[in-house]
Amino acid sequence: MREKYVDALCALGHRRLSIIDLSSGHQPLHDASGKLWLVCNGEIYNYEELRRDLIARGHQFLTNGDCEVILHLYREYGEACLEHLRGMFAFALWDSEKQLLFAARDHLGQKPFFYAEQNGYFAFASEIKGLLAYDPSLRKLSLEGLDQYSRCESRLHRAACSSVCISCRRGTR
After folding, report:
1. Residue 132 backbone zone (phi > 0: left; psi -120 to 50: alpha; other: beta)
2. The pTM is what?
């Protein structure tokens, strides 16, 4: 099933593989206020524990799905919500009140998060073909990008490289 959210600054779309909460877990997900919106690829392993804790803190859930906990964790902890998540995931959360897009992936980078930033737009997808459908010119090979990829793929560097490799982005090692 395809779903979408669109406002003046952000558009989120999602094509869902339904595993948990088949009837009400369609994405993009939103909180009760309608100010937070989320698309997520993956699975939150500790969502039941997180959900119980958040309900005890007064949060009201609209679905029974695992990814909705991200919205409530963000409301509770901001970007530090990542410290509470266990699983394999990549997500983008749009905070319409702050006009802020918060995107992240799991600690090990198991779920892909492809993105492109150009001409004042930021586009992302969990599969490269989603970005290529958005802008076919992205097929062009970037020699600088290839060099960065090669550095991150070296055996020694990969062991120390995080999902956001600062040393590669600066071009130093």
Report:
1. alpha
2. 0.76
